[in-house]
Amino acid sequence: MSFPQVDPLDWRTIQPHVDALLVAELTPATADAWLQQWSDLASVLYETQMRINRKLTENTADEEADQQFITFVEQIMPQTRIATEALRDRLLALQAHGYTPGPDSAELLRRFRAEASIYRAENVPILSELLKLGNQFDKVEGGLNIVWNGATETIPQARLHWQSQDRAERETSWRLVMAAHAAQGEKLNELYLQMLAQRRQLAGNAGLSDYRAYKWQELARFDYTPADCVTFHDAIEHEVVPLARKIYTEQANKLGLGALRPWDTDVDPNGEPLRPFKDVADLEAGCYRIFNRVDRELAAYFALMRDGFLDLPSRANKAGGGYCEAFPVTGKPYIFMNAVGTHDDVQTLLHEGGHAFHYMESRRNPLWWNQNGPMEFCEVASMGMELLSAPYLASDHGGFYSEADAARAYADHLRGIVTFLPYMAVVDAFQHWVYVDAPEDVTAADLDAKWCELWDRFMAGLDYAGLQTEKETGWHRKQHIFTDPFYYIEYGLAQLGALQVWRNALKDQQKAVADYRSALALGGTRGLAQLFTAAGGHFAFDRRTVGELMALVEEQLGLLTDKTHD
């Protein structure tokens, strides 16, 4: 790889490299070298975008970063999209002259064809506008806080109260957080309806019937269809919702409650919440020890990141959530999260560590586009790492806890998988409706009503009596709906893959880790079904597949519950 020297915020320094690619000899014999040259340029531009995104999410009030973002979105990205289309068309045209991609490039060409099918020059400014609207959403979310006992707390900090054994404290904090979101409700409605109109226009300009059809091509969803998503929703409703309801009922019984309210889901009925670390240095060190038990080479990757490529603590004006991104020129991944001292923070760092390992393992693929992989499998990497790490949560094995507390954390994670899948179905089904079936003049009230309908279908066992507004505006509190449309079923499909990796690990941990790493190393060179197979699973999401995995989870929960009482 030979990365070009450019000023990534000045297109005049980039255009000559594009021009050179457009006029260079391109034949079947020179295609691989030409593609590598393009990949190197794409890597530079991607890293620039990620560096700006890093600054913006680390401090949503950073005016310099905000200006760089505007420059990149308004000046660089539109030109990049135009250049990408011209270069992509040139490569695709070569197939008519005898070019046959090798086995590691066939999937890439397939993705390029899908991208080319939806590209329209008139969509370039719309895509830039959508990025700016997404940045506005991040600013709204990053500015949310509550006042607790006279002190300002971020939303992640406020959620700590939801783990309190004091029910009044939980309810008060929950209502304050809901009120903080509600205060921005009109702005969020306006933002989303603007986004919806822009996304519909993207699809119309591309000659497609709806935005879902557009997004299916953009996300290169070759291995499953919208009808398959409905099949998955059905499997969740019949195989997961009953177990989730059972989990909620057990939670209510242990707490001595007649009904489980939304502020009762995070509290541990077995005692005070786990506090695994005092500061992020402890968190880093503990997760490094766990990674080292899973696999020493993976731990070495994490060690590389501890020199400036981790931003873990929650603070004011920091964007919400967590993510891992690759810096392909630097050759390192970067992890962002909002740690406040809980076991969820441990799980988040293990999860994002899986993403980081995916990038590092797949870097052996020289083309940037073949590093990482399909998003559904990227999440297998992260969720699989959470489960592969579970045997090492106890301090005797490198982690943070006593054996009893480790079993408690492990069981809580499995319960979380079960209760997450119905929520995932709500988020996904909501977006299918919004972008395909919702009326042209859909209103915020219509969106609220649909969300509420789906919530009642999938989220059995939670009592929202008297909380209608909070329930029906739940879509306001899901970032993906605003900034990453249709990117959510990936988590559900990937959870099925991760559970299969875990099922294998219960029989042979060492082999399961080896298969996991082998699949990660393939990056984007293989299709989704092949990647699942390489990891030791199969790509399916019907009632039988989902039911078998839920039965295993329920069995293991019984064993872990016994350990917590030893």
Q: Enter the CATH topology name of the domain at 280-398 and 489-564.
A: Neurolysin, domain 3
CATH hierarchy class name of the domain at 280-398 and 489-564: Mainly Alpha
CATH architecture label of the domain at 280-398 and 489-564: Orthogonal Bundle
Shape: globular
Instruction: Report, as a whole number of angstroms, the end-to-end distance.
Output: 55 Å
Mean pLDDT across all amino acids: 95
Percent in strands: under 5%
Tally of helical runs: 22
Radius of gyration: 24 Å
In what order do the strands lie side by side in the largest sheet?
A: 3-5-4
Oligomer: single chain
Give a short account of the largest sheet: 3 strands, mixed
Helix- and strand-based class? Answer: mainly alpha
Helix percentage: 55-70%
Element order: H for helix, E for strand? HHHHHEEHHHHHHHEEEHHHHHHHHHH
Question: Describe it for me?
Answer:
The protein has 566 residues and is mostly helical. Among the domains are: 11-100; 280-398 and 489-564, Orthogonal Bundle (Neurolysin, domain 3). It is built from 22 helices and five strands. Strands 3-5-4 form a three-stranded mixed β-sheet, sandwiched between helices. The protein has a two-stranded antiparallel sheet with strand order 1-2. A hairpin with a 2-residue loop joins strand 1 (145-148) and strand 2 (151-154). It is globular, with a radius of gyration of 24 Å.
Task: Sum up the structure in keywords.
22 helices, 566 residues, Neurolysin, domain 3, 65% helix, globular, mainly alpha, three-stranded mixed β-sheet, two-stranded antiparallel ribbon
